[in-house]
Design goal:
The protein is an alpha/beta fold. The protein has 8 helices and 8 strands. Bound molecules: hypoxanthine. Hypoxanthine binds next to strand 4, strand 7 and strand 8.
Length: 235
C-alpha cells in the first residue's frame, strides 16, 4: 500500500499495468490528489505481489470499513505480508525530511477502530512485526524507528497538538495506516509500516502545504523503491 506521492513506485516495482480500483465491485472511490487508486498485480524480485497505489481516508468521509477494504481484500486473496507506507509529519528531532522511518508502534487517535461491529479482542502488542523491522534494517541499516500517531485530519495539526502528541510518545503523525494495520493484523497478516517524513510537523518547521507533502513523497520514491525491493526479496 503506497502513500502520498509514492504511487509512481508501483509500476517500477511490479512491471505491471494499473487496474483502477473503480473496476472492482465494492471498492471505495478516492479523490485525493496523489492517491489515484489503482492495483498492480505483478512480481517484485520474483515474488508475487499486489501493489495498492492510493488509499481512502477517514477524512474523505469514508467509514473504517471502506478505509480497510483494499487490505481486507488482498489478505483474503492470500497476501501474508502487508507493507503499509505513508507520508507523515516528523515530530522526533532526529527525523529528516525525505527520510523513510520504520513504524515501531502506533497511537490510534482516530476515535474509531476497524474492529467495531465485529468485536474481537485482538492483541495489539506487536502490530508492526518485529522480525520484518529487523529484516528492513538489514536492507538499510540507517533506518530509524518511531511511533506513528494516526489522526483523522484533514487539517494538519496545530503546534499545540504536536506538543501534545510528542508528550504522548508520538514521533510521527499522519492521517492513515492505523486502521489498515489493525485490520491486517487482526486477519493474521504480518505488517510492516514505513513512513516517509514529508515535512517537519506543525510548529517545528515551515508552514504545511499538501503540494509540498506530495513533492517530498515523490522525491523519496527512489529510496522507497529500493527499500521495498530489498525487503520483499528477503521475505
Ligand atoms: N500531519 C498529518 N499528516 C501528515 C503530515 C502532518 O504533518 N504530513 C504528511 N501527512
Amino acid at each position: 500500500m503506497l502513500g502520498s506521492g509514492l504511487a509512481p513506485v508501483a509500476g517500477a516495482l511490479t512491471g505491471a499495468e494499473p487496474v483502477p480500483y473503480s473496476s472492482f465491485d465494492g471498492w471505495p472511490r478516492t479523490r485525493v490528489p496523489g492517491h489515484e487508486g489503482a492495483l498492480y498485480a505483478g512480481e517484485i524480485e520474483g515474488i508475487p505481489a499486489l501493489v495498492l497505489a492510493g488509499r481512502v481516508h477517514l477524512y474523505e468521509g469514508h467509514p473504517s470499513s471502506a478505509v480497510t477494504h483494499a487490505v481486507d481484500e488482498v489478505v483474503a486473496a492470500g497476501c501474508r505480508t502487508v507493507v503499509l507506507t505513508n507520508a507523515a509529519g516528523g515530530i522526533a528531532e532526529s527525523f529528516g525530511v525525505g527520510e523513510p522511518v520504520l513504524i515501531s508502534d502506533h497511537l490510534n487517535l482516530t476515535g474509531s477502530s476497524p474492529l467495531i461491529g465485529a468485536p474481537t479482542f485482538v492483541d495489539l502488542s506487536a502490530v508492526y512485526d518485529p522480525e520484518l523491522r529487523t529484516l528492513a534494517r538489514t536492507v538499510d541499516p540507517s533506518l530509524q524507528e518511531g511511533v506513528y500517531a494516526g489522526v483523522v485530519g484533514p487539517a494538519y495539526e496545530t503546534p499545540a497538538e504536536i506538543r501534545m502528541l510528542r508528550m504522548l510518545g508520538a514521533d510521527l503523525v499522519g492521517m492513515s495506516t492505523v486502521h489498515e494495520a489493525i485490520a491486517a493484523h487482526a486477519l493474521g497478516a504480518r505488517v510492516l509500516g514505513i513512513s516517509v517524513v514529508t515535512n517537519r510537523a506543525a510548529g517545528l518547521g515551515t508552514r504545511l502545504d499538501h503540494a509540498e507533502v506530495q513533492r517530498a513523497g515523490a522525491e523519496a520514491a527512489g529510496r522507497m523503491e529500493s527499500l521495498l525491493r530489498g525487503v520483499v526479496a528477503q521475505l
